[in-house]
Design brief:
By secondary structure, the chain is mainly α. The protein has helices spanning about 1-10, 35-40, 50-60, 65-75, 80-95, 105-114. The longest helix has 16 residues, at about 80-95. Helix content is about 50%, strand content about 0%. It has a domain at about 1-10 and about 65-114.
């Protein structure tokens, strides 16, 4: 169960590592670097668009997860606060097995706990 919660949090956490560039021990950039903001096309609504390659790099690793797991985790990811509450619930459940999930939680969060 904790693995499912950890997976949900992994999916929810933004990919900050994509914004980093390799540097040497002195902090100098290794190789050439161009900010993706400069080369990213802007849509009609003013929102930057990812290239096909960038989009594949962002969502490609999701294809490695089993479909059954994604069917539980992805809908639950729409409720990040409830995911955190569910993680705390699982910790508390270890000491008090009579606890019940919050009835206000979305069904996807309850499925994630199970």
């Amino acid at each position: 169960m904790k693995a499912l919660i950890a997976t949900a949090m992994f999916i929810l956490v933004p990919a900050v590592s994509m914004a980093q560039v390799p540097v040497d021990d002195d902090g100098n950039v290794i190789g050439s670097y161009e900010s993706s903001a400069e080369i990213m096309p802007i849509g009609e609504d003013g929102i930057p668009r990812l290239s096909h390659t960038d989009l594949q790099e962002l969502v490609g690793p999701i294809a490695l997860y089993p479909d059954d797991l994604l069917a539980i985790v992805l809908p639950a990811s729409a409720y990040p606060l409830q995911v955190v509450e569910a993680a705390r619930f699982l910790e508390a459940l270890e000491s008090d097995p009579t606890l019940q999930p919050d009835p206000d939680w979305d069904d996807s969060i309850v499925a994630l706990i199970n």
